[in-house]
Every structure is written in structure tokens, then in C-alpha cells.
Design a protein that fits this description.
Length: 105
């Protein structure tokens, strides 16, 4: 994270959208638990706070990009450090994808 943010100004950092997925979950079809996702997103936000400020960390968006589906989106989106999701395989089925698109807290 620190290397990726090198040269990024505070103003630019406020506009960042960072997508997170545990490396072991990429392409596996397995989703991390909501608690694992929250921990990863919290650490991202904390790193940004350490580099810039709490305000910047709270303004930027952190998304979960793992295997999100209608069955797990509620528990994922209930976590405070997760601002949204990126639909992968779920976007291949129109009905499933629309359920995610129309998700409301």
C-alpha cells in the first residue's frame, strides 16, 4: 500500500477507490468471511490514515472485490469499513447481478 500511494497527494488520496480481495480468494470462487473482509478493509483504511489522516481514510472508498453474491452481501455490507463491492462471477447471471445492483442497506 505505501508503495502504491507514493507520490499521491492528500487531495488525490481523498478521491481514491481501493478494491480489496485476499490473494487466496482470487479466482477461487471462495469468498472470505465478512469478518476477514472487514479486517482487510480496516487495515487498508488504517494505512491511509497513517500516511495522510483519519479524514482522508474516512473519505476514500474501500470496496470488496471477492466472490460477492446475494447470499453474502448483507453480512459484508454490514461492516463499517466496507463501502461497496465489485461483482465478479455474479455479474455473469443477469438475475443475480441485478440483486446486487439493487442492494440497499
Amino acid at each position: 500500500m505505501t508503495g502504491a500511494l507514493k507520490g499521491i497527494t492528500e487531495e488525490q488520496a481523498r478521491q481514491l477507490i481501493i478494491a480489496y480481495e485476499p490473494s487466496w480468494a482470487i479466482g477461487s470462487g471462495k469468498s472470505a468471511s465478512a469478518e476477514q473482509v472487514e479486517e482487510g478493509c480496516y487495515l487498508i483504511r488504517q494505512t491511509v490514515a497513517d500516511l495522510y489522516s483519519d479524514d482522508v481514510a474516512n473519505e476514500m472508498r474501500v470496496l470488496y472485490g471477492g466472490s460477492v453474491n446475494p447470499e453474502n452481501i448483507d453480512s459484508i455490507m454490514a461492516k463499517p469499513n466496507i463501502d461497496g463491492v465489485l461483482a465478479g462471477g455474479a455479474s455473469l447471471n443477469a438475475e443475480t447481478y441485478l440483486q446486487l445492483v439493487h442492494y440497499q442497506k
